[in-house]
Amino acid sequence: xxxxxxxxPDRRDPETCDYSNAALAWTAILxxxxxxxxxxxIKYRLDTAGGRARLAALCGNQVPAVPHxxxxxxxxxxxxxxxxxxxxxxxxxxLLQARRLEAFRLLDRYYLLTVDLTGHLYLGDTxxxxxxxxxxQTAEDGRTLYYRPVCEAKLVTRTGLALSLxxxxxxxxxxxxxxxxxxxxxxxxxxxxxxxxxxxxFSFCALLDARYANQTGFALCEGNDWRFLITLxxxxxxxxxxxxxxxxxxxxxNRFRLASPEVAYDYTWVNDIAYGKRLLNVLECRWTRPDGxxxxxxxxxxxxxxxxxxxxxxxxxxxQRWRTENEGFHAQKHGGFAMExxxxxxxxxxxxxxxxxxxxxxxxxxxxxYYRGKAAVKHTFGSLLNxxxxxxxxxxxxxxxxxxxxxxxxxxxxxxxLNSS
Length: 421
Known about the structure:
By secondary structure, this protein is α+β, with helices and mostly antiparallel strands. The protein has two domains: about 1-80 and about 345-410, no CATH class; about 80-330, Transposase Inhibitor Protein From Tn5, Chain A, domain 1. Helix content is about 40%, strand content about 20%. It is built from 15 helices and ten strands. Strands 1, 2, 3, 4, 5, 6, 7, 8, 9 and 10 form a ten-stranded mixed beta sheet that branches. A hairpin with a 5-residue loop joins strand 9 (about 280-290) and strand 10. The two termini are about 30 Å apart.
């Protein structure tokens, strides 16, 4: 990781710098790792004798102190976000190339990719240099509010991993207010192409919400050679929905039931429904529990549906889309990372803080897996947040082991099982 951080661009004069670019980037990552939730807490929570020693050991050179949060902010304001974006991508690509995620492929072939929009930074109602490029919305009282959303692509697994593949910041071009603001679908078009470029040769199945159930969404997936499982709602694709309702009762062979003491799943599907020049397949999953609770999911897909594939398509595919919201956005907003906190107001720095949060989140997930998964972490530490706090205290206070002890630890093989189920 330190080598990757050293490769980040650095326009500063090395003769006038107290900190390397790796030290500054590591400080931001450690801020998130320790769930400090604000840049100013770096001074109070990381800058200890132990913290300085460990940061120096990480970077391979002495540091006068743990960098001040403002120093980190100034550096990140000068770095092209595309360079920082490469960090989480390099981490995930290393896992893919080492075949650590093969067990989580849908139908033993497709990695699961989710794309969704989330709020990132809210800047109130006062226009300034910091609000240039922001999207706007009108409040009930007539005020213009400024905010910065981000369209995020994550690789998810049924065991709860949510790993950032790429981030596309949704923003308006500089200049007069545009007649049409930037939005999710145009951002997704930019995002999809970048994921395809950075991860060539990997087969993905895109798990998408109902706003992609249209010609634009289908074309985005097909243009990148991705398969898709898209939530189908009654109001979307009316002709496809109506034909599915008409044909489901005429295809009695397209039924499959899978029941257990906890839940029963009933599947119905219709293949090859014409939609323009495309043939689409629709899968419906109804579930019931012994206590009488029930529900229904419906997806449209280009993957063939059979009695063999219907259950994995639903349970290991379509229903995993929520992980980008739960293990992804929810964890980053409410799990101590404080994603919506204004770590920086300058657009470039704000983007880079967000991207380093993605690095820290991947590292945190690997630490959780090292402790045998979320359930084991909660049993041992009480919560995922407690694990982060213990990590922070160890970083701040625990002495670095003697070289011989450290060497023995590093030479001892360990296993990090990404599948902790």
